[in-house]
Amino acid sequence: MERALPPHSAPLHRRPRTARRRAAVAVASTLGLVAGGVAALAGTGSAAAGTTTVTTGLGSNWYASAPYLMPEDNSPPDAAAVMDATGQKAFQLAFILAQGSSCAPAWGGTSSIETDTAMPTVIRTIRGKGGDVSVSVGGYGGTKLGQVCGTPEATAAGYQQVITRYQLKAIDFDLEEPEYENSAAIHNEIGAARILQQNNPGLYVSITTAGTTSGTGWFGTQMLNEAKAQGFTPNNYSIMPFDGGFNGAAAQTDALVKFNRILQTTFGWSEATAYAHEGVSMMNGRTDTAEYFRQADFQTVLDFATAHNLARYTYWSVNRDRQCPGPVDPGLSGSCSSVAQNDWDFTKYTVKFAGATPPTTPPTTPTTTPPTTPGSCTDPVWSASTVYTAGNKVSYNGHRYHAKWWTLNEVPSASGQWGVWADDGPC
């Protein structure tokens, strides 16, 4: 969800203190090295060089519950066995990046979709059992198409190759570092998502970005403003509430409430409409910053998601949905959770969500009517528990402010030139 460097390049899933996901990598060092795992995923038959079996799609509730899976790294599990054990029907395959510095899509940034043979095999196996896949583009680190393709149209053309080759009914834009700190790249990515939505009727589009204890950070809010400016509404905006000072499910649900307010402020939505466009993408077990999210936490967030009619509930990753061999917690791993569990415990929660909450269909464009509260402020509301650094923007009592330097629990004030907050005027 917030997520991945090319699978062969980094030992951790997400960088500490950023609440953005990157891939936790097992001992394997290159794509394609997991021949045994791919064979297990394949079931029978060889990989086709081109297309995969046509599917009619599953319905948005399954795409909304699809957990992330890396079939070419991190000791990939047998997707068919996971389906049999849990009833899960959809998976979010990760990650498409730019091949080198070119505007060409490749798995992990190295394996071109034109020549990769493992993914078609995996997709065929899942579809052969009545399931389907979504593909996630981006993740933490690596080079994204939005950074190199130059325009939204060129970026969309690159992703369209992925949709066409795998006959996709769903796609996820995982907008994280370093790309989402680049306004031109985010313009390209959001523009590409809008174009793909227009050119592929019925395509399920999710936008996943970093979560913080305030909902999302400055860059996440700027991404939402970009979407508003382009008149684009995906099926959902999902945050990843972990790796940012989170302590259990209560902190996660609190972040979801605060993110809901950001969506209301940005798009002029009611609380209920905002929840119908909001999703959550969690991390099971131990996170990069040694936060722990166990089965009870997933249940609590699931209860919140169903009670508030959230549009998406998923997690990173199926590769990690099993207990580590030997010591239960050997440290962060890309292929086990580092908590006590049975195989596929966490995937069973996404299955429950798929059966409990079919997401509603979003409007085609965001409304431009300003909310009544808190005014027309589009920056996130100031929070006493959030650490702000120089340049961070907030709204407070109808005014916009930006931080001059590091601050915590200092109320923005419109008076006093020597204060930490600079008053940027009324919203």
Automatic annotation (TrEMBL):
Keywords: Hydrolase
Biased segments, Pro residues type: 359-373
Superkingdom in the source lineage: Bacteria
Region annotation Disordered: where it falls in the sequence: 356-378
Stored InterPro entries: CBM5/12 (IPR003610), CBM_sf_5/12 (IPR036573), GH (IPR017853), GH18_Chitinase (IPR052750)
Recorded GO MF terms: carbohydrate binding; hydrolase activity, hydrolyzing O-glycosyl compounds
Protein's name according to its UniProt entry: Chitinase
Keyword Hydrolase among UniProt keywords: yes
Domain Chitin-binding type-3: 379-424
GO terms of biological process kind: carbohydrate metabolic process
Matching Gene3D superfamilies: Carbohydrate-binding module superfamily 5/12, Glycosidases
Gene Ontology CC annotations of this record: extracellular region
Source organism (scientific name): Streptomyces kaniharaensis
Family matches, as Pfam families: CBM_5_12
